[in-house]
Write a structure and sequence with these properties.
37% helix, binds D-gluconic acid, 404 residues, 13 helices, three-stranded antiparallel β-sheet, globular, binds magnesium ion, alpha/beta
Length: 404
């Protein structure tokens, strides 16, 4: 076969933060790019790709995207999980990239074409105290953002998820071992609703406000929170309860009309099936990279469409600009798309992955370049080596490990 897969390279590098990048080359010289980054577990997914997947791909027809997906998923007894699914996700987006480049079409065109003119985004605002938070909210609104995620420090705690005392927030700390942080849900529950009300007062009714609880609350605490913030009219409340317990959201649903979002750590359609079919959520947050690529997320979003749930893919800085492009192409062609998170990237990441996608005035565009529309600067990656960086581990005030 003249256009068979010939080379599969896995590059782990750190242009501003760690990424696992996959380059699939065909015999006729087309290069497809994929992202397979799992924050804090980069080397495991790189080994899975290099040692177990690359040998299976060489010689295959890169146009048989669905068949390769099924082969990599069903052909292995030990399936699902973040490492496996990010590896498959990276391969899948690289194959879509190849197909786009071969046919001269942007990927969104191959997915059925645009169903919208622009992709609505939300950005992050945080502040250790209210004045600092309001400053960042104002900055976001001045940038043209219509939707802003708000996170605040909590009195009595010295560290809180999503908040930094510096102007830039990156959750993974560059160190050989993860940092440990203290957490107290009751202090947070007492404090946060008031902060949100103050932000709502400050920005008026027009701005969509979002908030992320990072899987930390019990079902009852989450229901109390969702109820307490109703007057502030949240666009969504994200990850209120642990992701592996879909039933936990039922109580929240029964007690509040606050829209609920979850799913950034889900890896397959089966992780979200119950939540979607039983309409326990309003937004499904699967990231294209962590849930098996474009091919699988498309199925998740189709299931969501049947049940009135909207797609709202995860878009933090640990989803590389390559996977981010895949997310935007899928968003452009998905009718039940809701909103795309845009956390933004360090400058070096933009340089390492020159991209056709754009963010302007609060809106995102996938661009019209063939494939995913992202390139890679291999010299720049070679000059910025991987070094360990980990998300923190959280402990309750009595020392018990809790969800971070
Ligand atoms: C979000 C997230 C992230 C995660 C991070 C973990 O909603 O953007 O919760 O910030 O913490 O992606 O790797
Ligand atoms: Mg989140």
């Amino acid at each position: 076969m003249t256009d068979a897969i010939q080379g599969v390279d896995v590059i782990v590098a750190s242009p501003g933060r760690n990424y696992v990048t996959l380059r699939i080359t065909t015999a006729d010289g087309i290069v497809g790019l994929g992202d397979a980054t799992v924050n804090g577990r980069e080397l495991s997914v790189a080994s899975y790709l290099r040692d177990h997947i690359a040998p299976l791909l060489v010689g295959r027809d890169p146009g048989r995207i669905e068949d390769i997906w099924q082969y990599l998923y069903r052909g292995v007894y030990w399936r699902r999980g973040p490492i496996t699914m990010a590896a498959i996700g990276g391969v899948d987006m690289a194959l879509w990239d190849i197909l786009g480049k071969r046919t001269g079409q942007p990927v969104y065109q191959l997915l059925g074409g645009r169903v919208r003119d622009r992709i609505t985004s939300y950005r992050h605002a945080f502040g250790w105290d209210l004045p600092a938070l309001l400053d960042q909210v104002d900055e976001r609104v001045a940038e043209g953002c219509t939707h802003v995620r708000v996170q605040t420090g909590v009195p009595g705690l010295t560290t809180v998820y999503g908040v930094s005392k510096d102007p830039v927030y990156e959750p993974a700390g560059r160190a050989p071992l993860p940092a440990e942080e203290g957490w107290d849900s009751e202090s947070y529950l007492r404090y946060f609703p008031g902060v949100l009300a103050a932000v709502r007062d400050h920005v008026g009714e027009q701005v969509g406000l979002l908030h992320d609880s990072h899987h930390r609350l019990t079902s009852n605490q989450a229901a109390r929170l969702a109820k307490a913030v109703e007057p502030s009219n949240l666009f969504w409340l994200e990850d209120v309860t642990p992701a592996e317990d879909p039933e936990a959201l039922r109580l929240v649903r029964q007690h509040s009309t606050t829209p609920l979002a979850i799913g950034e750590v889900f890896n397959t359609i089966w992780d979200c099936q119950q939540l979607i079919e039983q309409r326990l959520i309003d937004y499904i947050r699967t990231a294209i990279v962590h849930a098996g690529g474009i091919s699988h997320c498309r199925k998740i979003f189709a299931l969501a469409e049947v049940h009135g749930v909207l797609a709202a893919p995860h878009g933090p800085s640990d989803v590389s600009p390559v996977a981010y492009a895949a997310s935007l192409h899928l968003a452009a062609a998905t009718h039940n798309f809701g909103i795309q998170e845009y956390m933004g990237y360090p400058d070096l990441a933009h340089e390492a992955f020159p991209h056709a996608w754009t963010f302007e005035n609060g809106a995102l565009q996938p661009g019209d370049a063939a494939g995913l529309g992202v390139d890679v600067d291999l010299d720049l990656l070679a000059a910025h080596e991987y070094s360990p960086a980990y998300l923190p581990v959280a402990r309750r005030l009595d020392g018990t490990v809790t969800d971070w």
